[in-house]
Amino acid sequence: MLAFVAGLVGAGLWLPFGLAPFYWVAFLLFLLAFRHVRNSRQAIKLGVVVGIARYAVAAHFLLALLRYSPLAIVFYLLAIVYILPFAILESWGAFWLERRTGLPRAVGFGLIWAILEKVRTLSDLSFPADLLAHGMGSSPDWLAITAWTGPFVVPTWMCLVAAGLLASWIAWRGGHRARAALLAVCALAGWLTPRLAAPALAGDPEPLPAMRVSIVQPFATVDEKKDPRQWPRLRERIWRMTRKAAQDADLVLWPESARPGPVIWRTAEPFADQDLSELATEVGVPILYGADLFAWNRTEARRRLGKLYNGAALATPGAVAHTWYGKQRLLPFAEGVPFADLIGWDPSKRKGGDGYLTLLGNFTPGPRPTVFEVGAARIGVLICYEGMYPQLARRYRNEGANLLVVMTNDAWWGRSVFPSWHATMAGTRARELDVPVVRAANSGVSSVADRLGHVRTRSGVSETTILRGTVRPSSSPPTFYAVHGDWLVGLDLLIIALALVFGIFRRRAA
């Protein structure tokens, strides 16, 4: 029962209610249950119970998709099944390490959790939505240390705080009051240090000129975007909003796939979008917009080959050719076929008519990241759930980006917890990279966060609006984490490896 409660509490703390800094409470409950584990079977059972409880609550927003299909129940159950191997490895692995090496299970648990969070950012089947750092994005001052360590420090840090408090409680019950007090003070100091040190760690670089940004939030419904007959009406809406948004703005932002209908161009020619060129010239302001981009060439008289990208492009006043970006991380199955290169799947070569690609899995990953330049801003674009991947944002930062833009379409999720949860990641990416993050969402939440992750302005959910804000592109160099990456995960692996070596020598000596 305690394990089940630990999972429920962990999910509740992780959801976007501002309670994630207290995640050590969930770890403390888990470690209290973990104390009673005596064999591998019990460790596995513990992981299963905690994993089911955690994801039954944390992934509940998937049920919002029931408005579109009963398959939402299947997706919900698959999400729970997806986490179970990781939850089992966390508890069983920590137990096994303690038996083999003497490494305290609380320490092993924190190390393994961090390593497995990193694993969940890898491969075409990855979906790193549940990083603990993402839950803390709404309290970015607690993430100040991630500019040096990266986001995967959070589970180890929280687990060590919980382990210290558990040791304090054990000492208290054993009558060692002074030791208990010292352990409690050390644990709480370790918990509070990143938050208290945040002002000193923030730095104060010479600011670049402020940029006035207007975010168009058109709130196009899923049915409207899917129906070509609705595109003229959507076009009129977003063109009208853009003309208004451009007033007193240096940049207008559209969300993911906001342009009604695809942009189609020949691969042998420069990318161009005549409609957006004319609109940008009319309003006199650059427009950074999301769109389906279809590059094609005709190699036979009756066959068209091409690539469809979930992309972004920058239209500037007076220019015909533009720069564009194709999404790198495709949503498994919905946008791209996992491991397509290994199985030889190339959506551009599918047999069929001349129409542009629309079936599930027919998007192609973009060829490279693109840094868009607008005045002093060098903008890296992350589309939808690309914002969950720290390594993508790091790559932009190291290629000179001083501002990140996240384009997304959260209309699928209605008024569920998902839009707010998705929005918290802006604070996480901003804090670890010392760069402002602007979100343009079709139905909300759109927001402007400064380089320290504090949201300065935001929109509501399910509303048609124009959000205006001011952002200062970062003038600081890339953070230690941006340059050196997930070195802390390597250190975790090294600690486990050294513990295993020590365990081998200890057993031989015995």
Task: Describe the model.
Strand 5 and strand 6 form a beta hairpin. By secondary structure, this protein is of the alpha/beta class. The protein folds into two domains: 226 residues, no CATH class; 265 residues, Nitrilase/N-carbamoyl-D-aminoacid amidohydrolase. The two termini are 38 Å apart. Helix content is 45%, strand content 16%.
- CATH homologous superfamily title of the largest domain: Carbon-nitrogen hydrolase
What would you call the structural class?
Answer: alpha/beta
CATH architecture of the largest domain: 4-Layer Sandwich
The whole-number mean of residue pLDDT values reads 91
Q: Please compute the radius of gyration using only Cα atoms.
A: 25 Å
CATH class of the largest domain: Alpha Beta
Number of DSSP strand runs: 13
Low-confidence stretches: 352-359
Domain tally: 2
Question: Beta-strand percentage?
Answer: 15-25%
Q: What percent of residues adopt helix (DSSP H or I)? A: 40-55%
SS element count, helices = 18
Q: Please describe the biggest sheet, giving its number of strands, its sense, and whether it closes into a barrel.
A: 7 strands, mixed
Distance, first to last CA: 38 Å
> Judging from the principal axes of the Cα atoms, what is the shape?
globular
- For this structure, the CATH topology of the largest domain is Nitrilase/N-carbamoyl-D-aminoacid amidohydrolase
